[in-house]
Amino acid sequence: MTLKNGNSYRESLKELNPEVFYLGKKIDDRLGYPSFLPHINSAALTYELANMPEYEELLTATSHLTGKKINRFTHIHQSTDDLVKKVKALRLLGQKTGACFQRCVGWDALNATYTVTYEIDKKNGTNYHKKFKEYLLYVQENDLMIAGAMTDPKGDRSLKPSQQKDPDLFLHVVEKNDKGIIVRGAKAHQTGIINSHELLAMPTLAMGEEDKDYALAFAIPVDTKGIIHIFGRQTNDTRRLEEGTMDKGNYKYGIVGGEALTIFNDVFVPWERVFMCGEWEWTGLFVERFASYHRQNYGGCKTGVSDVIIGSAVAAAEYNGVASASHIKDKIAEMVNMTETLYSCSIACSDQGHETDSGAYIVNPLLANVTKLNVTRYIYEICRLCHDIAGGLVATLPSEADLNNPQLKYLIEKYLKGVDNIPTENRMRIFRLIENMTGGTALVESMHGAGSPQAQKIMILKQANLKMKKKLAEDLAGIEKEK
Amino acid sequence: MTLKNGNSYRESLKELNPEVFYLGKKIDDRLGYPSFLPHINSAALTYELANMPEYEELLTATSHLTGKKINRFTHIHQSTDDLVKKVKALRLLGQKTGACFQRCVGWDALNATYTVTYEIDKKNGTNYHKKFKEYLLYVQENDLMIAGAMTDPKGDRSLKPSQQKDPDLFLHVVEKNDKGIIVRGAKAHQTGIINSHELLAMPTLAMGEEDKDYALAFAIPVDTKGIIHIFGRQTNDTRRLEEGTMDKGNYKYGIVGGEALTIFNDVFVPWERVFMCGEWEWTGLFVERFASYHRQNYGGCKTGVSDVIIGSAVAAAEYNGVASASHIKDKIAEMVNMTETLYSCSIACSDQGHETDSGAYIVNPLLANVTKLNVTRYIYEICRLCHDIAGGLVATLPSEADLNNPQLKYLIEKYLKGVDNIPTENRMRIFRLIENMTGGTALVESMHGAGSPQAQKIMILKQANLKMKKKLAEDLAGIEKEK
Amino acid sequence: MTLKNGNSYRESLKELNPEVFYLGKKIDDRLGYPSFLPHINSAALTYELANMPEYEELLTATSHLTGKKINRFTHIHQSTDDLVKKVKALRLLGQKTGACFQRCVGWDALNATYTVTYEIDKKNGTNYHKKFKEYLLYVQENDLMIAGAMTDPKGDRSLKPSQQKDPDLFLHVVEKNDKGIIVRGAKAHQTGIINSHELLAMPTLAMGEEDKDYALAFAIPVDTKGIIHIFGRQTNDTRRLEEGTMDKGNYKYGIVGGEALTIFNDVFVPWERVFMCGEWEWTGLFVERFASYHRQNYGGCKTGVSDVIIGSAVAAAEYNGVASASHIKDKIAEMVNMTETLYSCSIACSDQGHETDSGAYIVNPLLANVTKLNVTRYIYEICRLCHDIAGGLVATLPSEADLNNPQLKYLIEKYLKGVDNIPTENRMRIFRLIENMTGGTALVESMHGAGSPQAQKIMILKQANLKMKKKLAEDLAGIEKEK
Amino acid sequence: MTLKNGNSYRESLKELNPEVFYLGKKIDDRLGYPSFLPHINSAALTYELANMPEYEELLTATSHLTGKKINRFTHIHQSTDDLVKKVKALRLLGQKTGACFQRCVGWDALNATYTVTYEIDKKNGTNYHKKFKEYLLYVQENDLMIAGAMTDPKGDRSLKPSQQKDPDLFLHVVEKNDKGIIVRGAKAHQTGIINSHELLAMPTLAMGEEDKDYALAFAIPVDTKGIIHIFGRQTNDTRRLEEGTMDKGNYKYGIVGGEALTIFNDVFVPWERVFMCGEWEWTGLFVERFASYHRQNYGGCKTGVSDVIIGSAVAAAEYNGVASASHIKDKIAEMVNMTETLYSCSIACSDQGHETDSGAYIVNPLLANVTKLNVTRYIYEICRLCHDIAGGLVATLPSEADLNNPQLKYLIEKYLKGVDNIPTENRMRIFRLIENMTGGTALVESMHGAGSPQAQKIMILKQANLKMKKKLAEDLAGIEKEK
């Protein structure tokens, strides 16, 4: 059976025992730990929806390796239609969770590695692609969740990997032997890694020959010996440890994706799981491929999340009695316009995708970078407009515990009442949802997830064909061509 | 032969003799008149490129009526792929002309009328669609240029057609007889009409029963008796009457589309060319269809024009010796990002199009409106950044006549020299191109062409499904559904 | 002695015993409670700096009532220079605290009440101003901190006070007797009230005669019988209850101002502290005066806070090794530009202030509203750029407890190291400061403090003199004046 | 008599006979030439208003040299109040002309030269300041209009003056003798120079020792032998040569300032008019002083022009029948907000000005640069919103000649009628005013006048005191100071 469901996903995680730290302590029961549950719920939904007939088209696909139905999150894109469906699947899950569901990073890592290993082998006669296809088959057959491990800590950002004072600030090979390789270093911002099955490591930037020990791609289980995960703090994180549901905002799902700093203390990787080792000439392409796939996503998942934020603004306006005010409607129209613009960018980079040598399809890289660059701006503005519409109570609301205090309950219900037909509790819940979905970590994730804005600008300039545009202008201005 | 070329297009226009006024005078030789030539050149290019093998895929199509190869500008869209090709054809022509080539208005009118007449007939048992298909055949076989006639003068905009003090401020039927109808009124902003073969009139807004005399669609030649065209002024228009090419900027093409105020002084339309007459219930749909098709375009043609503007900024920066300055590159990246965002919106509304009852395909209306709303903002910002990059000479440059004055030539060439390897004249030509492409009429056209921003916002809100979004938020906030 | 210092301020608070609830519990030791301390520290700094010679000019003033040196936060502005100094004092305190120091609300309430009571008395022959001056003297002599109590809960915002189903949704008089009045209702978003001495209540909007019971201004101690304060939650609030300092970000001060929902359960106010009771005709002016004073502030305090945010971005860039990247410098220039624009608006509305009938000076209301409207946009953008510069660790950083865990300390210090000469802990501290100063509650406060943006737009239109501007245009266009 | 009026200004210009070229021809009767008249009218208004009692306070000042009443445009600022009055005078003139009135460049040149020569002399023991005061006296006594000559052509902008292939691309000394110096080169964008009395040349950028021949400041009459002025083209410039008034838009005044390329063919300057010659160390300060004064202006004159644009939008909305639409009011509020923000920046940089060593007052340079940087953005947005409100007729309106054609007059008046009580001609006039005030040259002038945006950003960063801000952040984050 290639499709897991929510339960079998959770069950399968029990078989892994990664070393996870959070708030200074080692967490042994990560599946029962309240800080992690919302993140696990989000990821689990990628399994659950795949089993529901109404979402089958978007959430499953037919494996090009086996012809079997697989969860789309393990699929290698076979057409631009697959790329469009990816965006729609992500928007759907964004709408259902209002959160990051974490599974796209590994998906993009699978597709990037698939295409690049094919090209390396074709050029170099290596057998990375064959090994990777075997790995992919294993992933598809077991419906595994993969953590795509891209970003190294980077240390002093003005220096290359081999120039860093501490050579471990980028993940690198420290030993090779008959059976495999030993790696040391770390990967930061590892989305969903504590509830993933495997991690798939990739190079983080284009490298030169001097950095060839850092030119690495491989896959291993997340609980491989020598790996430590330090789970990062998030805005309002400890509300997950409080009683009740209201003050958590989006109490069931994770808002952002549960990121960890993953440290590799001399970790062994067998050769059959090594997909690049030393081929520094291909690191640039690797990063571009992964980044293009990953930047495509942000007009999918984030527009789903934006739909929730727009919906919360609509609800707040209604509860406050101002839904028909023209300035409110105008602001909602602006929120919708930005959301659909982001969605359009993702759809367009998919529609304009093309086949790679390996047969897998890749998005249009120019438009994928445009997608992400816009996300780094629009999401902030969407959240700003949501604050504008909702009002100041988002920042000063009493706690759920206050509402539950018998001495205060009547007073809060009386004085925080909005329009007559809406219970005060509902109004409070919407304000809390807004507080938790529109600030702090969630904003930063829209900024830096899939790479920082400057990385997108560099790619945009690289892809823009300015020479052709200059010639268009010179021709129309009547300027004689330079001989 | 269904494909005209540039020459046969111009020849065919000679057979028409519309009554055209400009700058206070009747213009008899409109094909030789220097103020009109650039506009005619732009339109002619839609014919010329269709005959070039490298553009055949984008500029021609296969008629669904006859199976013959036709100019794409007369085609009824048969798939989302046709819609995507439309966008690409428009961008190509925008790049080649740096201007409006006028022919999309009629194209969109053909498609809108095709789909709506089908639905009217299906509901009412009328025969508009049959008549329209005959007309379409005539257009395709003769490769005609159609002026889509949508916008009425509207008078006091707070009043409906029948409420206006002067009933003629919207085009309406004043008489019906056995042979046809007599119409009176006007259409404003008629793009390309003086060099079109036919006009296809449509209703300008959703109407109620009291306005049924205004619920009108029909087609007639642009030189039908009783029609007067008053050609509007454009920014720097009389430079077209000057000698030389430099000060015209884009001297060969029209920058914007050559718009006229077209007045109908009791004009006869035979019944076989009447496609709607009194069916007020369908006016809303008619406008929506046309507007959706037409708003799609602006991420095509305007991105082509933007490519030229970006190219002129790149050229100016190089000529000034600042091409490698980081702030210049950053601004160019922003210009590219905005251009590709607009393009993405057009591609996405095409990719997400759907079939109508008639079999013709229509774009996604939400995303088409998003496209146009963004155009009303981004084009201004693109032009602003171009000014920033180019420098102040755009506003203070001596004239071409000064450069040709023997006493001044040496001085101008000496003192307006930029980098060493670029002739001063080239630098001046780029500045003039920028001056003429980035100000005045060209900006206003990006604002109001295909409808004003507020019209787009209304459609965006209408299409946004806010109720669904609100429910998403309430579900995630833990709010019990209202019973 | 009219000047308190930090200690005497804290001591004086002990003499008050307000009923305060937080997180569902009654808090008895509010001065020792870790959630409240940072807010108290911020307010205390307004007392401390007034005793330091280098800040004397900005933080103290000469009472126009007594000629004595007083804390400027109790001063009635006697000149435009006083208004300019207000802005500078606020910026200074914003820089020193990176937070809201709460005391301006009461200050603005004092000035607004001073000017309006004078005008009421002049018109109506009442003695509100005389009573108010006595109260003011008491405030100045004892250097009291006043909570300005403006915003009522408002219920259904489409309804006026007397139209609400529950008449208590706006604060109102329920009884009058020889000694005073009894009031019922609530005030929301009460900044700094739990560590203030007195509250000064004012009407929240312009009212008609039917709402005259709501036309109220008065002052009472914050622990008056019948008053309950429910302290609102803030983003990351419970980090204040954790050990350590790092994860609190701005650990010493409060980020925002410690807001409470203050409920008046039939509270008695003696006549000598009633400054308006029933004079509905003056409510509009009252709100305008207070709002103008209060909107002026946001280009003072928030620019001080912005200075800290800019400084944190500069530090982050240096620690990351990217301080000299041109895109980083460009973003910092944009942050500075926005900050100084906001400051300019505050300075300008002060410079262009004018004397009121009472002799007190009021800011230019048009420019004060412009100030605040810009704040609702720029602060978000400043925070966005700070996120951009700082990088993704702002959202995924391990906790201080992790750093203190001996097993992790070495690993975190190793892998989160930036440039060589900066300890990892410092880098983490800056990221935490950024996380806590740029998200959630802090943003919302910039949006809605001193009134929501739409309130500012309405005032801007009202003050804009559009008729004069229209005439300028008509004159230049050669349009004959209408007779 | 130190105050000229409009007539005596025009008369005095007749005594000068500068060599002026325009559109390829030498213009001998520059005072009667229709292309120049509107510019002369704008400048003349600076003389006329100074004689009107209601503007006396703003348009005149008391000379600190003589104690006489002088035109403020020749005044050396003696206080921050003078600086504030400068801004108000500029806004007033912007409102009255809707145009550039040209005289501020020379005014700023006078003030900059006054302050810098004082400091050079103090350091070097030269006598520039004494000579300059004599010159200033002459200017004040004769109420002269001075063209401030700052911007050199610059050639390849990546090269310094002495690195250019052609050494004349920056104005420089080619010979010195007993009587004076001979200079060669050019100044670009010379605002108002053909209707000025004198030009006052200044260095255009900070120079090193190798460029000391370019470190020059001097004053001479604009018709000095060897000087040629080539008057630049402007958008819609030749409409000034057409009959009628409507199509000119702002028919009486010049929209922008009438800029010329002024060439110095070995021009003699007597020593008594040389105010800097070789003191390269002072060029940076010179440019900063002039730029600060000049950037201050743009929140004065441009806000006056914006008032006219806002007024034209208000008029257009009323004429169209949409004045009460909420989206129209919202856009007008935005236009007002931007306009008043720019004004605030100018007021603030004035209020926060300070005394220089010479006794003259200078604006706050940080805030002056902020002013101008905002202008380069807001004016475009103000124009964009004006286009949005006015509607498409701005781009397609028939000509005044059409309206005067008897065959068309009735039709145009009928079909371009808006609301009932406004003559069609008035509506057309407003649209034409908008077309001419909001596009092309006028926009570019807001971008590059007083220096390009990047120049402002560099100054903003230089003035921002980032080190202090960084320390604020580090202190609040609990970071130990570096020892």
UniProtKB/TrEMBL annotation, chains A, B, C, D:
Cytoplasm is among the record's keywords: no
Record key words, sorted: FAD, Flavoprotein, Oxidoreductase
SUPFAM superfamilies: Acyl-CoA dehydrogenase C-terminal domain-like, Acyl-CoA dehydrogenase NM domain-like
Keyword Flavoprotein found: yes
The organism's place on the tree of life at top rank: Bacteria
Signal peptide extent: none
Record domain HpaB/PvcC/4-BUDH C-terminal: where: 284-478
InterPro entries given in the database record: Acyl-CoA_Oxase/DH_mid-dom_sf (IPR046373), AcylCo_DH-like_C (IPR036250), AcylCoA_DH/oxidase_NM_dom_sf (IPR009100), HpaB/PvcC/4-BUDH (IPR004925), HpaB/PvcC/4-BUDH_C (IPR024719), HpaB/PvcC/4-BUDH_N (IPR024674)
Chain ranges of the HpaB/PvcC/4-BUDH N-terminal domain: 6-276
GO molecular function ontology, one term from the record: oxidoreductase activity, acting on the CH-CH group of donors
Binding-site residues for FAD, renumbered to this chain: 191
Name of protein: 4-hydroxybutyryl-CoA dehydratase
